[in-house]
Amino acid sequence: MKILNVKQIRELDAATIQNEPISSLNLMERASQAFVKWYEGRFDTTKSISVFCGKGNNGGDGLAISRILSGKGYHVRVFVIEYTKDASEDFQQNLVKIENLIQVKSVYEINAMPEFVDDHVIIDALLGSGLSRPAEGLLAEVIKKINDAPGPIISVDIASGLYVDKSNEKADTIIEPDHTVTFQLPKLAFMMPQNAAFTGDWHVVDIGLNEKYIADASTPYHFTDQSSGEALVKFREKFSHKGTFGHALIMAGSYGKIGAAVLSSRACAHSGAGLLTVHVPECGYEILQISLPEAMISVDQNRNYIASVPELDSFSAIGIGPGIGQEALTVRVLDELLSKIKVPLIIDADALNILSKHPDLLEKLPAKTIVSPHPKEFQRLAGESANEYDRLELARNFAQKHNVIICLKGAYTAVILSDGDVHFNSTGNAGMATGGSGDVLTGILTSLLAQKYTPENAAIFGVFQHGLAGDKAAKKKTKTAMIASDIIDNLGW
Ligand SMILES: NC(=O)C1=CN([C@@H]2O[C@H](COP(=O)(O)OP(=O)(O)OC[C@H]3O[C@@H](n4cnc5c(N)ncnc54)[C@H](OP(=O)(O)O)[C@@H]3O)[C@@H](O)[C@H]2O)[C@@H](O)CC1
Ligand SMILES: [K+]
């Protein structure tokens, strides 16, 4: 699924109006009906509704939604916030359409706002994708008052005050909805953890916007939803043998962190690799043999941490990093590995921290190496950024400059390809923010690379399946009780 910027959303709107053809007023009606259909599935008529409208097209949606809901037997109160004299054409037309049906109250000052009761639903249709500056004055006061209300808030298209495709300032006044019901495509703003409070649960409703425009639109931003995630799978042919699925090598663990090696290895084995060898320091030998008899063990001559690179000839992909520490000899191992490797590589955890401290090694990364930092690791690697939009730009530049693929881990893990394209992942949950969950991802990615998924597809599909397994684990065990091993136990596609 594509994520478009504001300018493209406007063009998409226009392309739909021109090519379908449909009047802009009827398109607004269709959008409002789609919103109401979503609403009916969630709330029955016992709950009263207050709809707050601005005077642009988002407010026009608010008026149309009020009219349609009222026609379906909901008790609806409608407020228009009079922060300006100007009103959009479609707003005005919808005002006429509602006039004899529901009383519309004009709010010229904050004291004219209604009081709210507990189970009262608020629909926020103040400002939409046309936001051009922070909300101020009466609008800001109204937004604060709505945020203080006890009942659920549902934003039409996007929370009022939130920019679609650029960062807000910390001081901006923005609606904090429980739900956002957005039209046709997800918005870039929803992907940013900094906007969590201004997004709530978001839902995309189809309003039949021009498919050709969407297909032709060029954007670096994509959303890996269920269908685009599943589509990347490589099915296992009937006449395949273990050689078909490659031989993965995982280099992981040090004294006290052999668990990281176990987790990444188990995840690798459970993600379909034909053969798996794990290279660990001597202290990890028995632990690995016992916890994963399916793996072959390559024992480092050093007791407590990895100090040598094994013979690499037989491997089809290599993952390095989980729990390896940053001993000087281990740094040399990474250096030597980068010089020798001829197969796809994934670098994570301590190996990333080594890269941060030895930036000269960055130059040695083979093309399309996957790196999978969490935000702190990424900051150590690439530097600070003022906000998450800037961080994403930094990551896109980094990926292009070093010709690598970055899995920037977080609520919507961003897979950033070496051409700068970004694929936000849809799966996963907060229960996965727990020790070892990154090691599991390393194992999955190594496994997919060994099975000859392209590095791009391995990253997008691996992150997707990792999140999906995490969602299954959370369902069975709850987000609180689940641990990284539960993610492994729920792998499988
Ligand atoms: N895209 C689609 O396909 C469809 C879109 N639809 C709906 O249209 C919505 C977009 O509508 P929209 O463009 O009229 O924008 P919206 O945000 O309602 O108002 C902009 C007005 O507000 C003003 N303004 C801006 N910031 C302000 C501020 N801080 N404080 C005060 N004023 C401010 C701004 O002024 P200006 O920037 O011109 O000075 C302008 O006058 C979209 O979110 C969706 O709900 C559906 O109906 C159908 C399909
Ligand atoms: K809104």
From TrEMBL:
<dbReference type="GO" id="GO:0110051">
    <property type="term" value="P:metabolite repair"/>
</dbReference>
<feature type="binding site">
    <location>
        <position position="439"/>
    </location>
    <ligand>
        <name>(6S)-NADPHX</name>
    </ligand>
</feature>
<protein>
    <recommendedName>
        <fullName>Bifunctional NAD(P)H-hydrate repair enzyme</fullName>
        <ecNumber>4.2.1.136</ecNumber>
        <ecNumber>5.1.99.6</ecNumber>
    </recommendedName>
</protein>
<keyword id="KW-0456">Lyase</keyword>
<keyword id="KW-0630">Potassium</keyword>
<feature type="domain" description="YjeF C-terminal">
    <location>
        <begin position="225"/>
        <end position="493"/>
    </location>
</feature>
<keyword id="KW-0547">Nucleotide-binding</keyword>
<dbReference type="GO" id="GO:0046496">
    <property type="term" value="P:nicotinamide nucleotide metabolic process"/>
</dbReference>
<dbReference type="InterPro" id="IPR030677">
    <property type="entry name" value="Nnr"/>
</dbReference>
<dbReference type="InterPro" id="IPR017953">
    <property type="entry name" value="Carbohydrate_kinase_pred_CS"/>
</dbReference>
<dbReference type="InterPro" id="IPR000631">
    <property type="entry name" value="CARKD"/>
</dbReference>
<comment type="function">
    <text>Catalyzes the epimerization of the S- and R-forms of NAD(P)HX, a damaged form of NAD(P)H that is a result of enzymatic or heat-dependent hydration. This is a prerequisite for the S-specific NAD(P)H-hydrate dehydratase to allow the repair of both epimers of NAD(P)HX.</text>
</comment>
<feature type="binding site">
    <location>
        <position position="323"/>
    </location>
    <ligand>
        <name>(6S)-NADPHX</name>
    </ligand>
</feature>
<dbReference type="InterPro" id="IPR029056">
    <property type="entry name" value="Ribokinase-like"/>
</dbReference>
<keyword id="KW-0479">Metal-binding</keyword>
<keyword id="KW-0413">Isomerase</keyword>
<dbReference type="GO" id="GO:0005524">
    <property type="term" value="F:ATP binding"/>
</dbReference>
<feature type="binding site">
    <location>
        <position position="157"/>
    </location>
    <ligand>
        <name>(6S)-NADPHX</name>
    </ligand>
</feature>
<feature type="binding site">
    <location>
        <position position="160"/>
    </location>
    <ligand>
        <name>K(+)</name>
    </ligand>
</feature>
<dbReference type="Pfam" id="PF03853">
    <property type="entry name" value="YjeF_N"/>
</dbReference>
<keyword id="KW-0067">ATP-binding</keyword>
<keyword id="KW-0520">NAD</keyword>
<dbReference type="GO" id="GO:0052855">
    <property type="term" value="F:ADP-dependent NAD(P)H-hydrate dehydratase activity"/>
</dbReference>
<feature type="binding site">
    <location>
        <position position="58"/>
    </location>
    <ligand>
        <name>K(+)</name>
    </ligand>
</feature>
<feature type="domain" description="YjeF N-terminal">
    <location>
        <begin position="9"/>
        <end position="215"/>
    </location>
</feature>
<feature type="binding site">
    <location>
        <begin position="409"/>
        <end position="413"/>
    </location>
    <ligand>
        <name>AMP</name>
    </ligand>
</feature>
<comment type="subunit">
    <text>Homotetramer.</text>
</comment>
<keyword id="KW-0511">Multifunctional enzyme</keyword>
<feature type="binding site">
    <location>
        <position position="438"/>
    </location>
    <ligand>
        <name>AMP</name>
    </ligand>
</feature>
<comment type="similarity">
    <text>In the N-terminal section; belongs to the NnrE/AIBP family.</text>
</comment>
<keyword id="KW-0521">NADP</keyword>
<comment type="similarity">
    <text>Belongs to the NnrE/AIBP family.</text>
</comment>
<feature type="binding site">
    <location>
        <position position="260"/>
    </location>
    <ligand>
        <name>(6S)-NADPHX</name>
    </ligand>
</feature>
<feature type="binding site">
    <location>
        <begin position="128"/>
        <end position="134"/>
    </location>
    <ligand>
        <name>(6S)-NADPHX</name>
    </ligand>
</feature>
<dbReference type="Pfam" id="PF01256">
    <property type="entry name" value="Carb_kinase"/>
</dbReference>
<feature type="binding site">
    <location>
        <position position="124"/>
    </location>
    <ligand>
        <name>K(+)</name>
    </ligand>
</feature>
<feature type="binding site">
    <location>
        <position position="374"/>
    </location>
    <ligand>
        <name>(6S)-NADPHX</name>
    </ligand>
</feature>
<dbReference type="InterPro" id="IPR004443">
    <property type="entry name" value="YjeF_N_dom"/>
</dbReference>
<dbReference type="GO" id="GO:0052856">
    <property type="term" value="F:NAD(P)HX epimerase activity"/>
</dbReference>
<dbReference type="GO" id="GO:0046872">
    <property type="term" value="F:metal ion binding"/>
</dbReference>
<comment type="function">
    <text>Bifunctional enzyme that catalyzes the epimerization of the S- and R-forms of NAD(P)HX and the dehydration of the S-form of NAD(P)HX at the expense of ADP, which is converted to AMP. This allows the repair of both epimers of NAD(P)HX, a damaged form of NAD(P)H that is a result of enzymatic or heat-dependent hydration.</text>
</comment>
<feature type="binding site">
    <location>
        <begin position="57"/>
        <end position="61"/>
    </location>
    <ligand>
        <name>(6S)-NADPHX</name>
    </ligand>
</feature>
